[in-house]
Amino acid sequence: MFLLSEGGASIPVVDPLGADGVFSLLWLVIALPLAGATILLLGGRRTDAWGHWLGTLTAVGSFVLSLVLFVSMLGREEGQRQVVQHLYDWIRVGDLTVSIDLLLDPLSVLFLLLITGVGSLIHVYSIGYMEHDPRRRRFFAYLNLFVAAMLMLVLSENYLGLFLGWEGVGLASYLLIGFWQHKPSAAAAAKKAFVVNRVGDIGLSLGIALFFVTFGSTSFTVISANASGASDGVLTALGLLLLLAACGKSAQVPLQSWLLDAMEGPTPVSALIHAATMVTAGVYLVVRSNFVFELAPHAQTAVVVVATVTLLWGAVIGCAKDDIKKALAGSTMSQIGYMMLAAGLGVYGYAFAIFHLITHGFFKANMFLGAGSVMHGMNDDVDMRRYGALRKAMPVTFLTFAMGYLAIIGFPGFSGFWSKDKIIETALIESPVAGIGALIGAGVTGFYMTRLMLMTFFGEKRWKDDVHPHESPSVMTGPLVVLAALSVLGGLLYLGHWIVDWLSPVVGTAPKHEPPVPAIVITLLVLAVVAAGVATAWLLVGKRPVPVTAPQDVSFATRAARADLYGDTINETLVINPGRHATAGLTRGDRSLVDGLFTGSAGVTAALGAQLRKVQNGFVRSYALSVVGGVVLVLAALLVVNL
Amino acid sequence: MGEFTQPLMEYGSIWPLFVVFGVACLGVLAEAFLPRGRRHVVQLVLAVAGLLAALVGTVLVGMDLEVTEGGAARGLFGAAGAVAVDGPTVFLWGMLLVFALTGVALFAERRLESGVSAFAGQAAALPGTEAERRTQALDHTEVYPLLMFAVTGMMLFPAAADLLTLFVALEVLSLPLYLLAGLARRRRLLSQEAALKYFLLGAFSSGFFLYGVALVYGFAGSMSFAAIDEAVRNDTENRGLLLVGIGMLMVGLLFKVGAVPFQAWTPDVYQGAPTAVTAFMAAGTKIAAFGAILRLLYVAFGAERWSWQPMLWVVAILTMLVGAVLAIVQTDVKRMLAYSAIAHTGFLLTGVLGVQGASALAEGQVTSLQSVLFYLLTYSFATVGAFAVVTLVRDSSGEASAMERWAGLGARSPLVAGAFAFFLLSMAGIPLTAGFTGKWAVFTVALAAGAWPVVLVAIAASVVSVFFYIRLIRVMYFAVPEGEVASVTTPSPLTTAVIVVGVVGTLALGVVPGPVLDLAADAGQFIR
Questions:
Q1: Contacts with B, A 485-514, CB within 8 Å
Q2: Whole-model pTM above 0.80?
C-alpha cells in the first residue's frame, strides 16, 4: 500500500508482519541495557568493582543481537522487512488500545546498529576515560539507561512509546550533562538542557494529542494508512508540532542554545549523546513521520528554513570557539542542520538524511573521543589556544582525528564526502536557496575544522611546562581506531545506491529529477568551495602564530560568533526576563495576599503570637473576600453565556 | 394528614455506610468508658475492623448491583430515595475505604514521636502553658472516631441523591476534619490557626451552598436530583433562579476541592494540620467531593451542561495555572504539595467538563466519569504516599518540611528519597507512572468534548509543574546540604506499609492500568 504525495512520490504505508524466529528476540535489545542500568543503580556500591564491565557487556550484547537481526533482515525479501513485536497492552478500554509494540524495519535496524555499535565503543572508551572517577559505576548505569531509552525511541511502533524513549533520553542526557554536579556550570548546563528540551516536548505532547484526536490512535500503522484522509490544516499543524519537538531535541534554531552548554558533561557523553545519537532523534522523528510531512508541504518548507538557518548558525559559531568541545558542538549543530535539510526535502532527501546521520555518527563520535583523548593528555584543558603541535605527542589520536577531519570537510573518498555531497546536490535541485546555503555551509565547515586541526595538532607548542601531553591508553585509542576506519569507509553504504534502495520500503522512492547541470559539476563546485574554506583557514591560522589568550580587539562578527550569535541574549530578553517578572509579580501577590506572615509563624513566641493573631483576623477576612470574588466570578461565568 | 409510610431503607445495599457510622459511635462510647491506657488499642482495632468490614461489604454490594429499568446503569436508591448506590458510588466507596485505612495506619504511627502519636495531648491546653507541658505524654485517641465520622460523611457525599442529604453529608465530613486539622502535637499555633481558618471559611462557603439549595428548590420544587433533572428539561421559566442556584452550589463544592478562587485555605491547612490528617483529607475529601460534583452536575444538571461547562472551563484554567505557578515559589514541602493538589484539582475539573451526551460517545471510549474516577485513584496513591514520606523526614524540631532541609536526602536515605521521587514523578505525569495514565485519560476526554483550550492550558500547566517536582528531586539528590539537615526516622511497619501501598499502586496503575480502567468502565453510569 502506498500514499501519494502532491509531487507524485509514493510513500509506503507502515504495514508490518508479526515477529517470528530470531525477530522474537527483539525485546532483548532494549532489555539488556535496561537490566544493566537497573542492576547498577539498585546494586549500589556492591557493584562498584565490576559495574563498568557489566555496563559494557550489556551494550555489546545488544550490538551483537542487532547485528544478528540485521543479517536476518538482509536475508528476507524486501516486502517482508517490516516486523512488529507486540509486548503487551499498556492501556486498553473498549475499542481503544495503546500497546507497547516494537517495530523493526530497514530504518530502525540502521539506528539499532548505530546506537549499539557506537554505544559499545564509547562504553569501552569510558572504561579508560572515567577510570579515576569515584562514581564510574553510576556513570555506566546512566549510559546504559540512555542506550535503553534511545533504543525504545527508535523501536517503538507508536508515538506514545516513542515519547517514552524521548523522555528517557532527555532524563539520561540531563543526568549525564550534570554528572560532575559539583561544578555549578555543569549543574546549570544540565538544567538549561532540561528546560529547553521541555519546550520541544510541548510540541511532541500536543502532536500526540492531535494524532489521537484525528486518527484515534498513535500507531504508525494506523496513522500512515489514514493520513491522506486528514485535512490539510491538521496535517500542517501536526508537521509543525513535530518540527518543534525535533528542534528541541536536535538543537535546531530557535531551541539551539542548550547544546553548547551541554559540553559540560564528560566527553564520552558528548560523543554518544550530543553528537552521534540523541541529538539526531529529531531527524529520526521527521523521517519516521514521512507520512505526515509528505502531505504537509508547508511544514516541509518550515523544516527546510529551520535547517538552513541552523546549518549556517552552527557553522559560524564553530569558527570562533576556542574551546575544542564547543567548536565541535557548533559543528554538530551545523551537521544536524544538513540532515534536517535533507529530511525537509521530503522523499528526495530522507535516505540521504539517514546516510549523513550515520556517517556523522561515525566521524563526529570519532572526533569527540579524539578531543577527549587530547584533554586526557592535557590535564583536562579544553582551550585550543593552549594546545599546538600535539601530533607528535599523540600520534594515534592525531591520525584518527585526521580521518574524522577529512570525512567532515568532505574530502573525496571519505564518508562525509558522499553523504554531504548528495545532500547539497539534492538541495540545489529541489530548493536552490537552501542549496546555496548548504554550499556556503560546506565552505565554512572547511574553515572551522581546518582551524581546529591547525590549532590543536600543528604550529608551535603553546602548552605550559608542567603539562606533559601523552598518548592515551589502548582501551581509549582502540575505539578511536575503529571509528576512524568507519569514518573513512562509511561511504561504502552508498555503494550501488545501497542505502537508498534499502530504505525505500520505509521512506519511499522519489521520481527522478535531472539536475540542471551534471552532478559532477556540482561535486566539483562543492570541492572548490571547501578548498577555499580550508585555504582561508591556512592563511589566517596556519601561517600566523596563535596568541595564547584570545585577542579582544576583533570584528563584530567574531564577537557575535563567540557569543553564540547572541542566542542566550535573545532567549533572555524574549523569554526569561518577562517570565521572571511575571513570576516575581505573582510571588509578591502570593506573599502579601496569601502567605503573609503565616509561613513565619512557626515557633513564634506568645508575644509575637498576639500580634500575629490580630493580623490573622485580617487574613481570614481577605480569604473570605476572595471567596466572595469567586462567587461573583462563577455567577458571572454562568450568566454571561446564558443570558 | 397523610398516612405515615415507612421509608424503604434498602439496608442490604447501604449497610457499609452504617458499619462505618456505627463504629464511629462505638468509638465515642469507648472513649467515655474505657481507661485511658487501653483506649488506643481498642480504638485502633475498632477502626480497622470497621473499615475492613465496610470494604468487604462494598465489594459484596458492588457485585450484587442489578441493572435498573433503563438499562444504562446498575444500582438502586436507598433510604427513601436519598441515597443512590450504583457503580460509581461503589467505586468511590472502595477508594475512600482504602485510603481511610491508610489514614488510620498513619494516625496510629507512634514510633516517630518516641512513643506518642502525632496528635496533641490535650487540644484545649493553651500552647506554651503549664497545662500543655503536663499533657505532653497523653494521646488524643478521639481522633479515630473523628476519622470514622469523617469517612461516614465522605461516603454519604457522593452517594447523596437529594440536595439536603448532600448538605448533611458535606457537614458530616467537614466538621471532624476542622477538629482534626487543629490537633497537631508540634507547632500548636500553626495548627490551631489552620483549623480555625478552615472552619470559618468552610462555614462561609456552606452558607453559599445552602443558599444554592434554596434557589434550586425554588426553581424545581423538589430536592431530589431526579426531580430537578425533570424540571431542568421541561421548565423554561425562572432560569435565573436555576443558574444562580447552580453557581452557589458549585461554590460550596469547589471550595471543598480547593479550586481557584476558593483555594486560599488549602496551603495553610495542608501545612498546619498534622501530616497524617493532611494525607487523609487530601485524598478523602477530594474523592468524596469530586464524586458529589460529578453526580450533582451529571444527574441533576446534566441537561443544562451547556450552561455550566463554560464556567468550569474558567475555573479549571485558573486552578491549573495558579496551582502550578505558585507551587514554583514554595520553599516548604507541605505547602508545595498543597499547591500541587490545587493544580491537580484543575486537572480533575478538566476531566469533569469533558462530559458528552451518550450518543456522542464512540463504543468503548473512555467517559469523563471513568477518567475522573481513575485520576482520583492515581492522585490519591501518590498523595498519600508523599505525605507519608513527609512524616518521616525529621529534624530536632519534628517534621522538617522546609525544602532546604531535604538537601542530600537521596544520599542519606536512598529508599525513602527514591519513593518520594517516584511519587513526585507520578504527580508530574511522567510515563510509566500512574499520573501519566491519569492525565492522559482526562486530557483525551476533554479534547474529545472539544475543550481544547483547556487541554492546551493543562499541558502547559503540566510542563510547568514538572519544574517544581524535579526541583525537589534535584534538591534531594544533587544539592549540597548546608546547615542542619533532616534525616529519615525509622517508622513502625504501619507507615512503611502505607508508603509501599502508594509505590505499588502508582507503579501498577502506570504500567498495567488496564484492569483498573476496566473496573472504572464497569462502574458504568450514575443511576437517575
A1: none
A2: no
